[in-house]
């Protein structure tokens, strides 16, 4: 996947979140109904939906090369990410909820430390949900 689109209630407020995480506005503006931000090959599209009501529908994950500096950048900008975590499946990650309620996860793939049994255990646990 190379892009995701999020509904937002106010474009000016929404456009302040992603730049704090290294995304650059490449299309649109605070007055636009649709805007695109980009970091590397990943794009985040924002579409104005004035009647949008935030509900949790899942989480979007962005793979990054180095998760700890991004985590510290988020904290330095006053954002409140979850604690950095190690997943048994071989990622170091954190979650962050943006102003319109969309949950984002930023994860770094670690050297092959996850055993096949640990990965299978996590998959089985997720299938039980």
Between the first and last Cα atoms, what is the distance in angstroms?
A: 24 Å
Please give the CATH architecture of the largest domain.
Answer: Roll
Give the helix tally: 3
In CATH, the topology of the largest domain is named: 2,3-Dihydroxybiphenyl 1,2-Dioxygenase, domain 1
- Assign an overall shape: globular
Given as residue ranges, the uncertain stretches (5+ residues, pLDDT < 50) are none
Mean pLDDT: 86
For the record, what is the CATH homologous superfamily label of the largest domain? 2,3-Dihydroxybiphenyl 1,2-Dioxygenase, domain 1
How many individual β-strands? 8
Strand order of the largest sheet: 1-4-3-2
- Domain module tally: 2
* Backbone structural class: alpha/beta
What is the CATH class name of the largest domain? Alpha Beta
Q: Could you give a short account of the major beta sheet? A: 4 strands, mixed
- Determine the strand fraction and express it as a percent band: 25-35%
Helix percentage range = 10-25%
Radius of gyration: 16 Å
SSE order: EHEEEEHEEEH
Structure in words:
There is one protein chain. The chain is of the alpha/beta class. It folds into 2 domains: 51 residues, 2,3-Dihydroxybiphenyl 1,2-Dioxygenase, domain 1 (Roll), CATH 3.10.180; 72 residues, 2,3-Dihydroxybiphenyl 1,2-Dioxygenase, domain 1, CATH 3.10.180.10. The protein has 3 helices and 8 strands; from the N terminus they run βαββββαβββα. The strands form 2 sheets. It has a 4-stranded mixed sheet, with no helix packed on it. The protein has a 4-stranded mixed sheet with strand order 5-8-7-6. Strand 7 and strand 8 form a beta hairpin. It is globular, with a radius of gyration of 16 Å.
